[in-house]
Amino acid sequence: MRAPADPIKLVLASSNAGKLAEYGVLAENVSSHLPIELALLPDFDALPAFEETATTFAENALGKALHYSRLREGLVFADDSGLVVPSLGGEPGVRSARYAGEGASSEECNRKLLDELRGKKGRERGAYFVCAIALAGRGRARAIVTARVDGEILETPRGSGGFGYDPLFFFAPLGKAFAELSREEKNEHSHRGKAFRRLLSLFTA
Question: Does residue 166 carry a catalytic annotation?
Answer without folding.
Answer: no
